Amino acid sequence: MPLPESLTCVSCSAAYREDPNQYSCPKCGELGTLRVSYDYDRIRASASRDSLAAAPFRDHWRYLPLLPLAAGPVEFPLAVGATPLYPVPGLRKALGLERLWIKDDTANPSASLKDRASAVVLLKGLELGRREFAAASTGNAGASLACLSAALGLPCHIFVPESAPRAKVAQLLIFGADVLSIRGSYSEAFSLCVEASEYFLWYNRNTGYNPYTVEGKKTVALEIAEQLGWEPPDTVVAAAGDGCILSGIWKGFVDLHRLGWISRLPRLVAAQAEGSQSIKQAFDGDGAIRPVTEDTLADSISVSLPRNGVMAVQDLKASGGSAVSVSDGEILEAMPLLGKRTGLFAEPAAAAAVAALVKLAGAGELSRAERIVVVSTGHGLKDVDAALQAVDPPAPLDCAIDAVRERIHHS
Amino acid sequence: MPLPESLTCVSCSAAYREDPNQYSCPKCGELGTLRVSYDYDRIRASASRDSLAAAPFRDHWRYLPLLPLAAGPVEFPLAVGATPLYPVPGLRKALGLERLWIKDDTANPSASLKDRASAVVLLKGLELGRREFAAASTGNAGASLACLSAALGLPCHIFVPESAPRAKVAQLLIFGADVLSIRGSYSEAFSLCVEASEYFLWYNRNTGYNPYTVEGKKTVALEIAEQLGWEPPDTVVAAAGDGCILSGIWKGFVDLHRLGWISRLPRLVAAQAEGSQSIKQAFDGDGAIRPVTEDTLADSISVSLPRNGVMAVQDLKASGGSAVSVSDGEILEAMPLLGKRTGLFAEPAAAAAVAALVKLAGAGELSRAERIVVVSTGHGLKDVDAALQAVDPPAPLDCAIDAVRERIHHS
User: Which structural domains are found in chain A, ordered by start?
Assistant: First the structure.
């Protein structure tokens, strides 16, 4: 038997019974608002920190006893998770932070953290008897589902608004996804994707809808804790659009805390773009998620109405954390700062987390010895146009050693 | 003491004495034509297949006793090597090849195999007392050196022709490289870079010039052999531009064979673009490397005069291998074939190796049970424009379930 344990509504706490045909609260009717819980005694009986230490750190299936899936072993065709946690000495020095790490989740198969969610959702769907998959996304989630479905030889349907950038659609097509280019907004494509999934019995991976996306994403926190020797960081900084990654990180630490594998919980910092800060406004205000007008180059966190906003705000508050907004200019400064000081290349959304770190450090809101992890959620090669905006082109030089000499001696 | 062992000219076999100021044959004067040899008894005394089995498969420094570097341990800031070797069941089925693997070297820090060479060259340069580095490159080698230098906090100077695409230059700048944009061709930038390196005592990483690039690249072969349980493949297919990766793969297997860790050597297949097939022409003809007019979209293997051509042709012949040329059209077909069947996204140069595989399989030149490894050398996200050429955009669809139904029922 798998471990579905219990699902409860994040808004009204009503209990939900697994119905892969529509993930919505049976009481208040809201879509995708379900929290997953486990029988932690049962997990303790089958896994421990010692049993993990004996297993090679190769992919995130090492945490299978903490995932909503049947017992393994899992043979997955691509290597998801087990990404590096880098101590980044150059960035530590630049920011005056002595215990800073970057969790480089760009090292996943489709170059973003989303693979953690897609992999778990694909296996969950197969367990529930589904053989086709669907998602609405123009970005990392769609690319991730298309990538991992292809590796598993399973068909997937990706709904994108007609206005989606051609380069992003090209990746979906390279992986052989069935791309449905919808005459409408992202929000309309999202709703149509849910409707079509019900009709065709496709298993739906939409962010902020399928509760197992949070369960997949939580493995990044499990890895951070294990990589730090089960001494969790004081602070984890991550970018937030829909807020699903934030809830995933929190869920991972909460699960470990309930198991008694870590003795305390970190505080979370949500980094949002100034042009997409619905979660920050809700967090700083009355907690209610209200739509905003999107205006940021950080496309992966550019969201009008965060689909996972309610849960994310609850999690931020539970962690004693905060929300920080950064301008596009600050994001564009953070990209080369990260590149120069670490050799890591982050897309604008991921760089927003670095920008938030810089802002907090500059405001004296971080202590020198604080243990901080910043999660890099997507690769800079996904958006080279943004990188072009972040740097100045070099002046041309004559092809002569004298020209080089003069240039070097004057720089 | 490090292991320089011996360097000999690939053309005239003259012995060379380590002089990091200019890697050229002391007798025939040719640049970058040096083969590195080791004292294999000494390696056997410090390493074995069993000692490797006891070490975690985490990066390519596990092969330090086979590298031209001082004894470790190495603490390198980014995780180079230890990339996955995927069995790719979907592609096996599509091509009727039962024992096919893809070595996914796009999983390196800068998303190409070149990181193996850059990492070894950087450490070698430090051992030789150098503190600044240089390379001429508009592509993967430059991005790789810029990435890893940044991680190590070392300055590097990258020479690019003024005509280099802005997006490629942007990556170099994100990593904080000193980019010298030269009014001249790539070949002129290459020569100027060698001259400037001599003058400023920069350690030069140019492909086909620094002999330790081949030593770094060979670790991909060491990993393939170890991942296959020291039973080497029958055939290894890799794309060739300058031919340096080809020589690196061959050197890795030759070293293992001399150590007695593998009992036979694979044959190599060089995949070249029709519009850049100098190595194929030399291999099929009299062995002499002659310049060609470059005309291919596969920029990472678009080369007029291969800098490592002589060595590559020798190695191909020694392996009993062959050279295969593929058209840009065949490369553009291989990209979505690989994507759909494996979930891997390769840049055109890497897809050229898949295209060569398809061509050989179609011509009946591969046996069903042959053990084949194809090396994927660079990530598809490095050249999304090429991906756009490889797929057709989807037709737009009305935002209504009826439109989706009709579309699905008719596809």
Answer: 90-109+218-390 (3.40.50.1100)
